[in-house]
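Write out the 3D structure for:
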Amino acid sequence: MNFRTIVDIPVSDIRIDHSTRMMLFGSCFSENIGRKLVQSKFQVDLNPFGILYNPFSILSSIRRLLSARPFSEGDLVSNNGIYHSLMHHGQFSDPDKDACLHNISLLFNGAADNIKHTNLFLVTFGSAYVYQWKESGEIVGNCHKFPSRLFNRFRLSVEEITEEWEKLITDLKAIIPDVRLLFTVSPVRHWKEGAHENQISKSVLHLAIDNLGSIFPENVRYFPAYEVMIDELRDYRFYDEDMMHPSSFAVDYIWQLFGNTFFSEETMRINEEWKEIRKAMEHRPLYPGTDAHRAFIKSTFQKLEDFAHNYPWISCDDMSVEKWKGGEEGKWERKEKQ
């Protein structure tokens, strides 16, 4: 007897391996899967503008990266002594204007260099509702707790999303002829919009993505993270404490489905091999400084060096100069190997 509905996900013609150069934009799925990809040593540029929810803000961020036009003081606004960018998530905000610009530029410059060499864009739409800054007419990525009277709020239509993204994908194809875009819809419900409004919003996003898949059948694909969460994992035990976001178990499950869909057996084997090394490096010893601990460190370094030798296309530069700190915490710290 089967007590749940299984979402059938066929193996994709998009194959992702450790040589694939990816950029991820959007909300829940992009952030969660992006962290998993980063942990597994894939080449990932994850949300260089921070979490974004609506299709127009995501589109604007990609266009800004393509233009490589840097951010300046004129792009910032302030509220209650904090400087913000209306295109960015609050993680970039700071009481110090220069620090805010530094936070923005740090990720922006690297992403602007990477975007024209990106093979695959993973884009997650969260909501079709947008907030428009009345002063400039700009659709913002985040309201940063400014008064609501400063914004116009409205819902994008299927046609508006399709039209603007069709233009963007056409431009991307001119720069990267074989570019692929993998779209998802975030399963996180935007409850403040209202139950009915949230459903309409998600429907708009699904229809727009379906249109884009019809227009660009060689370039656009859809991964049903939304359907897995809503239908296959519909029980509340698969949700976090807020009853809106997926639990860590649900994220792990969807990550497994993602791998089954896009990874080859070899890629999954490499992932497992690296996972064991990463777990060893995160291990906290009970008795640091003992012979057993030193042997463990030596063994871990040997595995790391073997991994770097066997897979030279996977960067281990961030780990190869790490040294076991020992002491009570037993963490890795950056220090030249002796």
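The chain has a mean pLDDT of 91.
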